[in-house]
Amino acid sequence: MTGVIQTGPNRYRDDPGRDYDDFTVGDIYEHWPGRTITETDNSWFTLLTMNTHPLHFDSHYAEQSEFGKPLVNSTLTLSIVAGMSVSDTSQKAIANLGWKEIVLKAPVFAGDTIYAESEVLSKRESASRPGQGIVTVKTTGKKADGTVFMHYERSFLVAKKQS
User: Fold this and answer.
1) Fold designation for 20-159
2) Neighbour tally for 42: CB within 10 Å
3) What is the DSSP letter of 144?
4) So where are the chain's domains?
5) What's the CA gap between 159 and 162, in Å, rounded?
6) Cα(39)–Cα(31) distance, rounded to whole angstroms?
7) Chain centroid, CA 24 distance in Å
8) What DSSP line would sit under 56-120, residue for residue?
9) How distant, in Å, are the alpha carbons of 58, 101, 128, 129 from that of 53?
10) Which residue among 16, 59, 112, 116 is buried most deeply as judged by most CB within 10 Å?
């Protein structure tokens, strides 16, 4: 069985994620399930992170903006999209190595359902850590209607399969 480890007789445990050897440049992983963002998600995250911009939690203020309603905090959408990608990309990572070019393309509002997918851009063996490699993916966040609202690149260190 793929993605499952037998831990004993008639006993199994889920084993999500990929080893370095499982990544192929050009592959695209569609992350599932999606997530519908709620007003509560946005308010709690905004207040938890001490983001005091009223566009995220003051409906009256937001009504006066070009959007006409509160925007979902972009760091919340980044966090959710990154989380969606973990089981397909970095579940077995040793370390995140960096993020670059986080691009916000469209607003997200409470009630929007978001999805994500990641494309493997590159992979290379680590020069300083035998048995490990560096994988870079481009992750894209999309609304249910197909609107791309964000994308970014992320690199992480992951072990090769044990021989």
Assistant:
1) Thiol Ester Dehydrase; Chain A (3.10.129)
2) 21
3) T
4) 20-159
5) 8
6) 23
7) 19
8) GT-HHHHHTSTTSSPPPPHHHHHHHHHHHHTTTTTTTEEEEEEEEEEEE-S---TT-EEEEEEEE
9) 9, 23, 43, 43
10) 116
